[in-house]
Structures are given as structure tokens and as C-alpha cells.
Amino acid sequence: MNRALKYAYDAINGKKLVNKQIKQACQRFIDDLNRVDFPYYYDEAYADKVINFIEMLPTDNREQLKLLDFQVFLISQLFGWRTTNGGMRFKTFLYSCARKSGKSFIIASLALVYLFLEPGYSKQVLFTAGSLQQAHLAFDKAKNQLQNVSRVSSYMRRRFKVTSEKIFDTETDSFAVPLATNGTNNLDGYGADLAVMDECANISNKVFEDTKKVLESGMIQNENGLLCMISTAGFNMTSSFKAQCDYACDILSGKVTDDRYLALIYSLDDPEEVYEPKAWIKANPILANEKIAETMQAKIQADLDTATKQGDISNVLVKNFNMWTPGRVDAYIDPANWNKNLITPPSIYGKDAYIGIDLSTRNDLTSISWLIPLDDLTYYADSFSFIGTANGIERKERTDEFNYRLAAKRGECSITELESGIIDVDAVYSWLMNFITENNLNVLGIGYDPWNSNNLIARLEKQLALPLVGVRQGGLTLNVPTRQFKDLLLDGRLKHRDNKLLEYAINNAVVKLVNNNWILNKVDRMSGKHIDPAAALINAYVLGMNYFDEQLKNKERNEYFESDEFSF
Predict the structure, then answer these.
(1) What pLDDT, in 10s, does the model give residues 493-525?
(2) CATH (domain of 389)
(3) pLDDT tier for residue 534 given thresholds of 50, 70 and 90
(4) Range list of β-strands (E), 261-339
């Protein structure tokens, strides 16, 4: 059994400690090997050739290089899978792990394989990052590897010309260069065979999207073109790279099919694992090297001890354990806690329901969220929003740092069709009426902000025999529900489906203290990051927070009236 396949089986069988996403990646690898009528094949001999080539490269101290099993698994998948005419199967590769886990070495190795082994002439390898200094990290690693080879090979000295800013292969007229992404003009004119976007979590959304678009368009006719997005996690929960990581997780879980996208994400499964040193290898696969582990584990422990004493481990979670976190002590709900309560949507037909509405101004969202009490004493939460486009949908997506058009395809929102870009109140009213009717909901209350109401509330009041309740947005009204809502989630009694727009709103919400009362606020009041679906959900919870207590009281009353203790 080859090393890549053994790694996959060992990970699935628990012989190697890996996180959920890597187990899924291993299962995907095995499943793909067994697929029939699959338009790709696995060339084990070529994968081994690539592994042998990398392990022949001299190290700085001229020791024999031995790749770790996780590195073999990564490289074997990238270069072993081929199309029927011999090209690369994968067009996109997302790789994420904790810092100091050898990302630069992986990038440099991929570059040298492209220059040396992949067929073709005039090949281009681009090392890109948010700054030229960052782009140089992996480029310089590749340059050093070549210089080490040149010391022992006169052939290599003749074949390659190496300068501070370029590696040039005289035999195939190919080159590798480092480039900064601080302007896409730096990337115009290139047609990369291999394009690397390094430290993607530190790149702004606009620069990320523009860079990705330019690089992909440059390699569109290149059968062997590969875009690599490589980074440790970050603090921006609405970043473009975070969205790519979410998409990658959907592929690994089988929710989305994309046979030309390879994803390997090494991270902890739970924040509590930071206090379990044996689990650290999940996010730091380089710890499989015992020599490295001796010093690296001590450094991680020191970082964790310092952060724990300071009362904020968010930086350690991100950098040392590759876990996305808002990095704010006033963040309302931690993303890991939110995602723990993810479920498949249950049937809500005929159920009791509490509905919350957060109405919009010109550039906000109008959001309708609902809470459904379930039979197991839990609540099910979900949401739907209406998006205004007063300044154009593309500009709004850039400003808000969220892809509304993709969310609309997922059924999470509707984008206004009015030429003015203003939200169509008629459309909101029709959607809500249809939602209630189609699900035969027993609506026990509709909560809304009376200070920001519009004619939607007036129409509901006239047309529906439903309890409309104004929910004042001050601390006296919202403090207890806002605190209890979070406790409900932490206790595992608030469930929700994978609604990315609702998750986006939750991640943007921070706690504002007003006379020691909790009120939800935007993470940055001047930004376009919205919390409307979350605010609507709190409005619903204000009405439904005592549902199960009331049900219990009613049951107790009924049992009393049916008992012998009660009689006329």
C-alpha cells in the first residue's frame, strides 16, 4: 500500500489523529479511487516520482529530506490525479493549517515540481501575497532549494538562472516570480501554470476577489493551470477566504460536488481541545516530526499560558490552532458554538411559531426570522431576508462583504427587482403570507421594532388576525432575552440549519452594554456588515422565551383540573 493511501486509511481508522475535515478528505480520496466511469485516474507511479524528486532536494544542512505522511498525502493527491489526456485533475487547491506548519515549504515544492516535472514550455509560476515581502517567503524557499541543488549538480547550475526576483529555467523557457497583490495591474499579462495566493486571510475581500479573478482568467486555456489558496485562519468572519473555506467544507462533507477542487484544512474540532496537547497535531500536522515537536509544543504552550492569563485566547485559536474566531471579547456568539447546533431542517408544518421582523432603511436588510418550539424542548431558528440594491448589487456585496446573489440561490434571501433598488414591501408581505400559509403555522406572535415600522406592519395589522407586538429596542426590553438566547444556544437548545446569511449576521453582532444591559450592535457601526437577521431573531425570542414554561404550567393546571383534588 502506498504512503498516501495508508495515510488515508490510518486517518479514517483512528490510527492517526486528524480533524473532521481531514477525515472527510481521506474518505473522498478512497471513494474516488473506487469510482467507476470517473473522468479522472490516479497515476500512482507519477505521484511517487514527484515524492522522490522532492525528497532528493538537499536541505540547507545537506541532510536527506524525508516527507511526513501528511505532506505525501497532499502532494500525491495534487499530482497523482490526472485527466484522461494526462492533465491535472484539480484546478483549485485550498490548503489551511496553523502557522509554522511548513506552508512555505509546500508552496516552494509545488513550484519546483511545476518547473521541473510537469510537461510543457514557457511555464509560469506566480507567488502572490498581500505584500511583496510575504510573496518572497515561499519564493525564497524555492530559490534556496535550487541553490542547494546547484551546489551538488553542475547540470542544474547551467539549467537554472536565479536572481533575487526571478527563477528562470533555460531549458523550457519557464520562470517563477514573486508578486504583490496590492494592485491587479501587477498580475495583468501573466498566464500562470501555477498561481499561489499566500496568507489569503490577510487580504481584503476586494483584493482577494480581484486577484483570484485575474489569475483564473490568465490560466483559463491552460489545461494544467492550478490556483492554490493557502493560509492560516483569520479574524474576519466575512472574508472571501473564509467563504472559500466554507465552500471547501461543503465539498468535503458531500453537500457540494466539485471534482476539480481539492481542499485540505487542518484545525482543531473544538476550541476546548486547546487544553489537550495530544489534539494539537490536528491543526499542526508538522508535529508528526518529533524533533520539531520538542520545541514547537513548548512554544504553543507558552503562547496559550500567556493568552489564558490575559483572558483572551482568540489569537492563539487563530494562529496556533487554525480556528476562525472574531477575535473580539465583546463578540456576541462564538462561531464554533453557533456551528455546534447545526441540524438538518425539521418539518415545521403545523407548528407553533414566533416571528421576528427587522425592517430596513434604504441600504439595510429587511429580515424575517422565526423560532419554532420543538417537542424535545428545543427551538429551531431560521431566517429569510430582502435585499435592497440602491447603489447596485455588486457594490453592496463589496461594502457588506457578503455574496447576496449566492445566498439567494441557496434560498436565504431575495434581491429586490425594483429599478429604484428599494425593497419591495409588497414582495415582503406576500412572502410572509405564503410562508405562514404553506407551513400551516400557528403564529403566536410577530415581534417588530415600533420605532422603525413601515406600511408592512400596517398591512399585517389590517389583513391578519395575528398578535403583532412592538418590541422596544432598549436595554430594559432586550437585556434578559439577549442573554438568555445565548445561554439557550450554549446549552444546545437552540438549533438552526446551515443558513449562511443568518450566520453572517450572528458573526457581525457584538454586545453593547447600556447601564449593564445587553443590546446587540454591529461589530462596526460605520461598516456595511449587517445584523438584521439576528436582530429579527431576538425580536422573535422576546415573545417566545417563556414558551416551554407556559406549556409546563398549562400541563400542570390541566392535570390539577383532571385530578381528584379538583371538584365542584
Answers:
(1) 999 999 999 999 999 998 888 888 898 888 766
(2) 3.30.420.280
(3) very high
(4) 261-265
